[in-house]
Write a structure and sequence with these properties.
single chain, alpha+beta, two-stranded antiparallel sheet
Length: 119
């Protein structure tokens, strides 16, 4: 796995964020879309989904977070950090306020564990 610091540009929904990622050596990637790895958040069109999006948008936009990308995700080549089927990077994201977002979402019943494949 690889760890980076990132700046939250935008929260699309409960499990998708747009980030500026600081790779080190003064290298930065902007406007990168990340999906939270290991969780399937409630649909953004539901009442709970709208509540989660608003909560994350208010609390995370403009903040610095830590991301942990995976070397291997089911269905992808080993040793490569790849994008998922919708063109988003898969990563765990940690914040000062919530800790690991995937764990927080599950603990507060805004989603369930999901690692790809059939739901």
């Amino acid at each position: 796995m690889y760890n980076y610091k990132a700046y939250v540009e935008k929260c699309q929904d409960g499990d998708t964020l747009t980030l500026t990622v600081h790779l080190g050596f003064y290298i930065t990637l902007t406007h990168q879309t990340f999906r939270l790895y290991g969780v399937d958040a409630v649909e953004s069109t539901t009442k709970k989904g709208k509540e989660l999006k608003r909560l994350f948008k208010d609390a995370l936009t403009g903040k610095t977070v830590e991301i942990e990308t995976k070397k291997y995700v089911r269905g992808m080549k080993k040793g490569k950090s790849k994008k998922g089927k919708y063109g988003r990077w898969l990563a765990r994201i940690k914040t000062d306020e919530f800790g690991w977002l995937d764990t927080w979402i599950i603990r507060h019943k805004y989603g369930k564990r999901y690692y790809g494949g059939k739901r």
